[in-house]
Amino acid sequence: MTRPPARVLGAVLVLPALLAGCFTASPEAAEDGGARLRLALAFPPAAALSPFSDDAVLTSRMGVTETLVGLDDAGAPVPQLAGSWSRPDDRTALLELRPGVVFQDGAPLDAAAVVGVLEAAAAASPAPRAISGVGLTARAVDADTVEVRTAAADPLLVQRLASPGLVVLSPAAYADPAAPDPVGTATGPFTITGLQGDSAATLQANDRYWGGLPALDGVDVRFTADPGARTAGLRAGELDVAVNLPIAQLPSLTGLEVLSTPLPRLVGLFLDTADGPFADPGVRAAAARAVDPGPVVDGVYEGEASRAAGFFDDATLAGAARPAPRLPAPADPAGAVVRLATYSDRPELPEAAAVLAGQLRAAGFTVEVVVAEYAALEPGLLDGSYDAVLGSRLYLGDTGDPVGYLATDLTCAGTYNLARLCDPAVDDAVAAAGALTDPAQRRERAAAVEATVLGTAAFVPVLHERSRTGHAPSVTGLATDPFERRLVTAETAVGG
Hints:
Blueprint: E1 7-9, H1 27-32, E2 36-41, H2 56-61, E3 69-71, E4 77-79, E5 82-89, E6 92-97, H3 111-123, E7 137-142, E8 145-149, H4 157-160, E9 190-196, E10 200-205, E11 218-223, H5 227-235, E12 241-242, E13 257-271, H6 281-290, H7 294-300, E14 306-307, H8 314-317, E15 337-343, H9 349-362, E16 366-372, H10 374-383, E17 388-394, H11 402-410, H12 424-434, H13 439-454, E18 459-471, E19 475-476, E20 493-494
Parallel strand pairs: 2-11, 2-12, 15-16, 15-17
Antiparallel strand pairs: 1-13, 3-4, 5-6, 6-8, 7-8, 9-10, 10-11, 12-18, 13-17, 13-18, 14-18, 19-20
């Protein structure tokens, strides 16, 4: 699953003085006077940074939390807090913990602590997507060895432990087992010392870090949903790093640099198969036939994306044949009223939704577009409040495996099933694919399942994205992670 390398784009600038002051360093940063990074992330925390929520990605990107296992750029598991592992049978993994690791509160990383973490995650409601429904159990073999088991044979058991929802925190973090607190209880190079609701966080270097003393003294984080504000702060010199930059503003970033990394991230239209006009397969097929990704890829994304043939890009399928889906016969929309929702945190989505809404109207639909921040929309996205959702999904984010994505997003028991698809044929195909152990066979079966799902017209693929992280030229050591889990590392530095 090799992707093209990240590339650095040059950049432009002069900013009016009225933007000055939009982003300021924290008082603690000013008093400290050390090397601190000023960072803007796009998504505000929705659950006080609990790992049992999508906030888990925020803490891993900030360099605060770590998992037992990491993923390399190809999606293969690599050591993190577990230094090594073995698979004594197809339901079991034995993990040897990295020696000498301590939590940020001084507690030792040992097998008992790890077992507590995994038991809390398995008991969570809902459980982290990577382990939902697998019957995960854990026990301490000795002080440094953890046995992890699943209810059935699971070739992805080790990869599941790389999920951001399974970050390892000190026992002190679990005063509320349903919402573990990562403030001062993680293992990463940076410790959260202050959290200002959903607006900001202050981090200090973790001088106990097992990977060595971080290059930075700390990080001042702003959670800024407005992409224009992130870009303005970067151009004004009030930020050192900002993520998810609007494509339309890239030419204006002179004097700055932009890391552009190919992602296994899909933008597409989920159609509600359970209720409303798209409960009719023929009406879904009419919508699927109406959508033309070309104007979105070329116009809205200005070529900084690639047209999607299905859920997966070619790198993910690694040469596996992609069967052509067979759509149902289209029905006359007859003016069917459709509520199409998307979120503003990803700057291109609202404009893309407007383009697709125009295409649907031309095909005979009546379309209302709803745009809001993701945190406000999420409950409605999951409960079917909208007939269609234009979303952006990192489809290898949980396990680095395409079959795992299909299970969580497109089966009856899927925990992020925006199309509310419940098709026995799809469930059976996903289950059969999940039982395979050979990676090439799993990719081939994933391609076949993709065709089955697309044949339901529950999803209309549009494009595959790239990440766009802007930074000052003085910043070095940022991670270029195709799974968007890592950004600030122990090696990240700000020059003079």
